[in-house]
Amino acid sequence: MRVLLVCLASLLVCLKTADSHSLPQKDYETDSSKHYITNPLNDTSGNNSSSVPDTTTFIVRYVTTVDKKEYKGIYAHKNGKVKKILEGGRAVSVWPSKSRAYLAHKDGIYVYDSETEKLEKYGNLSDSIIGIVKENRTDDLYILTEDHVVYKVIEEGTKKIKVNEAEHAEQIALDWDDNLYYIGANNQPYVVASDGAKKIEGLPAYSTSAVISRAPIKIEHGAWFMSGQQPYVIYPNATSEPFVFSDQEKLEYEKRNRDLQVIFLQMRNQTEK
Ligand SMILES: *[C@@H]1O[C@H](CO)[C@@H](O)[C@H](O)[C@H]1NC(C)=O
Ligand SMILES: *[C@@H]1O[C@H](CO)[C@@H](O)[C@H](O)[C@H]1NC(C)=O
Ligand SMILES: *[C@@H]1O[C@H](CO)[C@@H](O)[C@H](O)[C@H]1NC(C)=O
Ligand SMILES: *[C@@H]1O[C@H](CO)[C@@H](O)[C@H](O)[C@H]1NC(C)=O
Ligand SMILES: *[C@@H]1O[C@H](CO)[C@@H](O)[C@H](O)[C@H]1NC(C)=O
Ligand SMILES: *[C@@H]1O[C@H](CO)[C@@H](O)[C@H](O)[C@H]1NC(C)=O
Ligand SMILES: *[C@@H]1O[C@H](CO)[C@@H](O)[C@H](O)[C@H]1NC(C)=O
User: Looking at the DSSP assignment, which residues form a beta bridge with residue 105?
Assistant: First the structure.
């Protein structure tokens, strides 16, 4: 069982705009129906992942109006079939080597097993959640609630601890070493350190869009940050560097885009009758 994670926002736009050096960006203007897919560049499974049968790709669908996101649900794509698994689902944290995915909803956390295709409520929290990430080394999670507060969720989803260092977070992400990053109200990323949150240096002061996520697996340390169409690796010591694709990575990236386009067509075909 392998899981393909995607971190491309709004694929339809990205397919039109992606050139060999760039990654897609969020675009709220050209198409009101948006999708957020989870997927690293060269994730975990390596090998032509999305064409491998049995791989599950999760798609979070939402529609944006002027300044509001309306969540349509989380879909799972497997073996060419698309299934809506959680109505109103808002975010998903997928684990490469495991079949369990954690899903965020307005009434708490759900867990989906992509082998058995079963969905269950996870723990007993009832927060309205818009972001969720799981640690690499433990089963603990971090959640971002609709009111922009970050909590660490421990003890199988029965206890939460507020992360006071993260102020008004818009998005959250972890790196492979379980350092926590977030994007603040100013669209800039921060890393949460033991002595407080630190702003990541070396990034453009303004960007039309900012996205953070776990980095592709070959980047062992640091998280992934997209400013507009430029990817960066951001480090726990609050530094950053632009990421430059090699020729091989460009080919892989383009292939992944093509695979994702197929997944999208299948999703549209199967869900928009
Ligand atoms: C890659 O694919 C080949 C052939 O399908 C398979 O033998 C191999 O185990 C795969 N490698 C990984 C890392 O999945
Ligand atoms: C992966 O895809 C590329 C191009 O589509 C192909 O050349 C290569 O043989 C594939 N690798 C495996 C292991 O299937
Ligand atoms: C969740 O369950 C735990 C352990 O059973 C309990 O201590 C806690 O109060 C519960 N929390 C909520 C929000 O119900
Ligand atoms: C995840 O954690 C394990 C266990 O500590 C570690 O060995 C591994 O390197 C981590 N994964 C990555 C991709 O860094
Ligand atoms: C910060 O960490 C990165 C990655 O580990 C390293 O390359 C860089 O030299 C460090 N910078 C400072 C100022 O410590
Ligand atoms: C992707 O992963 C495969 C298998 O781990 C590796 O051989 C390949 O070089 C990686 N490509 C990139 C761009 O990291
Ligand atoms: C759409 O679905 C129909 C049957 O439901 C199928 O015949 C057709 O090939 C599909 N088209 C695409 C582009 O997947």
Answer: 108
Nearest CA to ligand 4 atom 6: 137
Does the pTM surpass 0.70? The reply is yes
- From residue 115, alpha-carbon distances to 56, 90, 180 in Å are 9, 21, 29
pLDDT in tens, 250-267: 787 777 777 777 887 888
- Residue 162's pLDDT band, with cuts at 50, 70 and 90, is very high
Ramachandran category for residue 35: left, alpha or beta (phi over 0 → left; psi -120 to 50 → alpha): beta
Rounded-to-integer distance, Cα 61 and Cα 256, Å? 19
d(CA 175, CA 234) in angstroms, rounded, equals: 9
CA atoms of 186 and 27, how far apart (whole Å)? 18
Cβ of 52 less than 6 Å from ligand 4: no
Among protein residues, the one with the nearest Cα to ligand 3's atom 13 is 125
Residue type, 161: I
User: Which residues on neighbouring strands pair with residue 133, listed in sequence order?
Assistant: 142
Task: Give CA–CA dist 138/224, Å, rounded.
Answer: 21
CA-nearest of 65, 62, 49, 59 to 103 is 59
Nearest in space to 78 (alpha carbons), one of 100, 95, 101, 54: 54
Centre of ligand 3 to C-alpha 123, Å, is 8
Helix (H) or strand (E) holding 269: helix 247-271
Which residues are 219's β-sheet partners?
none
